[in-house]
């Protein structure tokens, strides 16, 4: 009986001492074995040291207490830079309210400057993508509908103009914004379908993929510009979502069925856009709309003078629409001749 009691007491004492000697705070102290100082600072390392105390003491990290691995220090420095607004990866679109992003992968866009040496603040396009619009283009060109598909395309577009006139009336800034949310869809849809076709058939596209995607990007830049001029209301935003959802699917199906019809529709849409921007200019010239300073993004994108106004922006946008008109009527004519788009070289860079 005495021996059993002594055994229990001994076990209790040993366990108590073990808990004291193997506590985290104790293990965190330096353990000297010869000339090697070992520190165990993590729960996993604590468990490993308790299980294999001798090997653990020889193989554990030799960092002093409180030291951190270099990778962890760098990671914390990156986080600190983000919090303090320091070096980051990826800049904001206009240099304002940009969210810094720290990344393990170290992908960082090059720092670009303008011709005058000032910083390039646009991440949505690069200096070499800026250009001067050709405003000498004929704005009155019109494709006279002759075939059934041409008339279908023409009267479909004309029927869509009436509700637009009723809804926006003479609010041409908001009208332009709505117009660009629709006009930027066809180029992306056509380019996407031609891209997939090129992959399926192992053939070149004749440059038409790039041309149509350039058109879509150009129309989107129109929208980014007019967003600075006309702030959409909540119901106008809701209308954009609805119209874009319907138009995207309708145009997608139309392009699958008849590319010649799809491109002709866009050609007539661009003719209507020219008309709308011409009316916009009349309102500016009559003083009904204030001719404010041109947005900074428009000045850099079209390489306009620093003192450019909203009227100058409308002029170059209207010229872009005239070029898109020509491109899409040209694409439709190619199909009417029984050819594929790849059979005729695309006018790349034809804004």
UniProtKB/TrEMBL annotation:
Textual note on the cofactor: Binds 2 iron ions per subunit.
Bilayer disposition of the protein: Multi-pass membrane protein
Single GO biological process annotation from the record: alternative respiration
Compartment annotation: Mitochondrion inner membrane
A GO cellular component annotation in the UniProt record: mitochondrial inner membrane
A single GO molecular function term of this UniProt record: alternative oxidase activity
Keyword presence, tRNA-binding: no
Regions of compositional bias (Basic and acidic residues) in chain numbering: 68-80
Catalysis: reaction(s): 2 a ubiquinol + O2 = 2 a ubiquinone + 2 H2O
Record's keyword annotation contains Electron transport: yes
Region annotation (Disordered) ranges: 60-97
UniProtKB keywords: Electron transport, Iron, Membrane, Metal-binding, Mitochondrion, Mitochondrion inner membrane, Oxidoreductase, Respiratory chain, Transit peptide, Transmembrane, Transmembrane helix, Transport
InterPro entries referenced in this protein's UniProt entry, alphabetically: AOX, AOX_sf
Chief location of this protein within or outside the cell: mitochondrion
Family that this chain belongs to: Belongs to the alternative oxidase family.
Subunit structure: Homodimer; disulfide-linked.
Protein name: Ubiquinol oxidase
